[in-house]
Automatic annotation (TrEMBL):
Gene3D superfamilies: HAD superfamily/HAD-like. This is D,D-heptose 1,7-bisphosphate phosphatase. Keywords: Carbohydrate metabolism, Cytoplasm, Hydrolase, Metal-binding, Zinc. Pfam families: Hydrolase_like. It comes from Bremerella volcania. One of its GO terms (molecular function) is metal ion binding. It is found in: Cytoplasm. Belongs to the GmhB family. Its main location: cytoplasm. Residues 206-234 are annotated as: Disordered.
Length: 234
């Protein structure tokens, strides 16, 4: 494992946005309880590496299971609290969790919103970027679905597809499309989050000046829910 020596501080610093299901934790259809939560091997250690160099790690997750009535926002909070515990066991933490509870075809009517936060739209990314004082153009979005990759493109960030969760299925789809259209496959694809972080840190170490400021990593737990009907700025 490479040693990460640079410390990232100040405005315009990079950030790593992580999809949750299939990227951080093993994919379970509509995960609504801490009992179903299993971290993918190597994930906590990878997040800890980002923590060590003060790169904010922000979870952005579509949770249409709330809109579908499978579980509640409180259940999602419980899952994130437990995820914090599992990560803390490895000295890792995330700066913030953002989730979208909406779906246009919601069973629970108050969530039946064609919102700006559901990926591939960028409401969660832009809200988080403002809150965490990071630059989307310096940011990475890591996920296992096309909606994650599209959100990255829509936000002007760099997308990385992991082969965990639905990632191998997504990769196959992209390969088939590439063959069908003759267009080169330009998606950045790695095995898992640990490999993604390895790549991110090596790219950043090559491309950015080193900061001499001491690390100021905000580890306070925040759980963001969008106000209903709120439209995030693009
Ligand atoms: Mg996912
Ligand atoms: Zn939403």
């Amino acid at each position: 494992m490479a040693i990460d020596t640079k410390i990232w501080t100040g405005p315009g610093r990079p950030a790593v946005f992580l999809d949750r299901d299939g990227t951080i934790n093993e994919e379970v259809k509509y995960l609504g309880s801490p009992h179903q939560l299993r971290l993918i091997p190597g994930v906590a250690e990878a997040i800890a590496r980002l923590n060590q160099v003060s790169i904010p790690v922000i979870v952005v997750t579509n949770q249409s299971g709330i809109a579908r009535g499978y579980y509640t926002e409180d259940d999602v909070q419980d899952v994130h609290n437990y995820m914090d515990k599992l990560l803390a066991d490895h000295g890792a933490s995330v700066s913030a969790y953002y989730y979208c509870p909406h779906h246009p075809d919601a069973i629970v009517k108050k969530y039946a919103v064609d919102c700006e936060c559901r990926k591939p739209r960028i409401g969660m990314l832009s809200a988080a970027a403002a809150q965490e004082n990071v630059s989307l153009s310096q940011a990475y979005v890591v996920g296992d679905k096309r909606s994650d990759l599209r959100a990255a493109v829509n936000a002007g960030a760099r997308g990385i597809l992991v082969r965990t969760g639905y990632g191998t299925k997504t990769e196959e789809e992209l390969l088939h499309e590439s063959e069908a259209t003759g267009a080169a496959l330009v998606t950045n694809i790695v095995d898992d989050l640990a490999a993604a972080v390895e790549q991110i840190l090596s790219q950043l170490n090559q491309s950015q000046p080193q900061s001499v400021k001491p690390p100021k990593f905000a580890s306070t737990y925040r759980h963001h829910r969008p106000e209903l009907g709120q439209h995030y700025p693009h």
